[in-house]
Design brief:
The chain has 2 domains: 158 residues, OB fold (Dihydrolipoamide Acetyltransferase, E2P) (Beta Barrel); 47 residues, DNA polymerase, domain 1 (Orthogonal Bundle), CATH 1.10.150.320. Helix content is 37%, strand content 16%. It has 8 helices and 8 strands, in the order αββββααβββαβαααα.
C-alpha cells in the first residue's frame, strides 16, 4: 500500500520541482530585464562622487553606480585605492584626488537637468540606507560613463554589463578604450597632469564646458587673502591647504583676524607658520 502510494506521488513531486525550477528561471530572467528610469534628478549628497550618486526616480531614491568606470576618490580615504588610481593616470595621490573632485563637478554639471538611468536593479557594492544599483546614465549629450572617460576623469575599471542595443560588454569596453586613447592624445583631464607638480598649470587644452580647471593653482600673493571671504579655490592656492583644510577654515568662520587660524582643527604651530603669511 505504501509502495503504491509513494509511486503515485513521484510524478506529482517531479512536476512540482520542474514548475519551481521554471519559476526560478523566469524570475531570474525578469531580474535581468533592462528598466528605464526617465526624468531622473540628482539628489545633493556629500557622498556623491564621479561614478556614484544619489538619484530620485518616480519618487524613489537610488544610489546609482556606473558600469565600466571608476572615478578617483575625492578625499584622502582608502589609501590603497588612491595609490592604484594615481598609478593608472601616472600622477601623485594629491593630484588624483583633484581629478576625482573634477569628475564630481563634471557629473554635477551634466546631471543638473533631467536624465535617464537604464538599469537591471543589480545591487551595487557598498553600504547605504537607500538601494544601490548599477546602471548606465544617459544625458542629452550621451552616456555619462563615456563622457567621463573622454574627458580623462575616470579609468576603465569595475563591474561591466552589456548596454541595451550593444552586441556585448566587450564592444562597449572597446569603445571606452578608443575614447581613452583619444583623451590621452589630447591630454585632457588627468592625462594632462602626468609629470607635473601639483601647483603647475595644467596642459589640458579642452576642459569640459562650464568649469574652470581645478588643477591649475595660481601662486598666491603674500598678505592678500581675506580669511573671511576667500573662496575654496582661493584657499587651496596656499601651500599646505588642501580641499579638506579649506572646508574646515570656511566652516570655522567668522574670524576676528587670520591670527585665529590656530583654532581650526589640523592647524598646529608648524602649519600656522607656513600659511599665515598669505593672509591679511
Amino acid at each position: 500500500m505504501i509502495k503504491k502510494l509513494s509511486s503515485s506521488l513521484v510524478p506529482i513531486i517531479c512536476g512540482a520541482i520542474w514548475l519551481s525550477a521554471i519559476e526560478r528561471i523566469e524570475a531570474k530572467g525578469k531580474e535581468k530585464d533592462w528598466i528605464t528610469l526617465d526624468n531622473c534628478q540628482l539628489i545633493s549628497n556629500k557622498a556623491n562622487d564621479g561614478d556614484s550618486f544619489h538619484v530620485r526616480a518616480n519618487d524613489t531614491e537610488y544610489l546609482v553606480r556606473l558600469y565600466f568606470v571608476d572615478a578617483p576618490e575625492t578625499a584622502s580615504i582608502a589609501p590603497a585605492r588612491l595609490i592604484e588610481q594615481a598609478e593608472y593616470f601616472g600622477v601623485s595621490v594629491p593630484q588624483v584626488i583633484e581629478i576625482g573632485l573634477d569628475a564630481k563637478r563634471f557629473v554635477d554639471a551634466k546631471l543638473s537637468e533631467p536624465f535617464t538611468v537604464v538599469t537591471r536593479l543589480a545591487g551595487g557594492l557598498g553600504r547605504s540606507k537607500v538601494q544601490r544599483i548599477y546602471g548606465f546614465v544617459r544625458t542629452k549629450e550621451g552616456d555619462l560613463g563615456e563622457q567621463l572617460i573622454a574627458n580623462g576623469l575616470a579609468r576603465i575599471h569595475g563591474t561591466t554589463g552589456t548596454p541595451p542595443g550593444a552586441a556585448s560588454s566587450a564592444t562597449e569596453r572597446q569603445k571606452l578604450e578608443e575614447l581613452e586613447s583619444e583623451a590621452k592624445q589630447r591630454k585632457v583631464g588627468g592625462w594632462g597632469m602626468s609629470g607635473q607638480a601639483l601647483k603647475a598649470a595644467s596642459a589640458t587644452p579642452q576642459p569640459f564646458a562650464g568649469a574652470s580647471h581645478p588643477y591649475a593653482k595660481e601662486t598666491p600673493t603674500l598678505g592678500k587673502i581675506d580669511i573671511n571671504t576667500a573662496t575654496e579655490k582661493e584657499l587651496i592656492t596656499v601651500p599646505g591647504i588642501g580641499h579638506v583644510m579649506a572646508a574646515r577654515i570656511i566652516a570655522a568662520r567668522p574670524f576676528r583676524s587670520a591670527d585665529d587660524l590656530k583654532r581650526v582643527s589640523g592647524i598646529g604651530d608648524k602649519k600656522y607658520a607656513q600659511i599665515r603669511p598669505y593672509f591679511e
